[in-house]
Amino acid sequence: MDYGWFGAIFGAFILIGILILVAILAVFLVIGFFLNNYHKFLYGKGSACAWIPFAQGYLLGKLTFNKLIGWVVVGTTLLFGTTYSTTVNGETVSHSLFPGGSTLVFFAKLGLLIYAIIKYEKLKKGELNKEYEAEKCNLFWGEPNNVANTTQPISSQNPESVTTTANAIAYCPSCGSPVTPDSDFCVSCGSKLK
After folding, report:
1. What are the Cα distances from residue 132, in Å, to 30, 67, 135, 166, 170?
2. The pTM of the whole model exceeds 0.70
3. Which of 24, 68, 191, 192 has a CA between 20 and 30 Å from the CA of residue 10?
């Protein structure tokens, strides 16, 4: 009996399976390196969560927004990935608790990752306040209370960066919150003022 065609088809499936596993591992490692570098940039040290599958989702949510979002990412991943089995006419059938939920979680995580990359680049360029973002990420809810503002005078070459009223009260152009005229960053939203 000649197994030439069968062997070739079987070998092709094995090769495709190996390529898929290598691609999944590569994506996992790239995301892990990114999250580890992001954490190191904000806090001065890497995070072991960047290398653990479910913890990686937590770290992504935390670095993008805060700890609450991190736990939401983990919870939805576990919830939408849960399946149960039933036996119908002697056949075991698997069902998802939320059909299509895994796809929604995938796209939500992809959106968070894209937002995290944008935010990381803004932090590296100095467009966002690093101390403010680091403190905000560590919170479970709300906004940071005590973020030190740098005290440099507002440059007269860039007067449109902070709008000022006649009473010398400055307002953030992004969110409209009052800021001191010598602030580099808005305490409410973290936007760079100069």
Report:
1. 26, 15, 5, 29, 19
2. no
3. 24
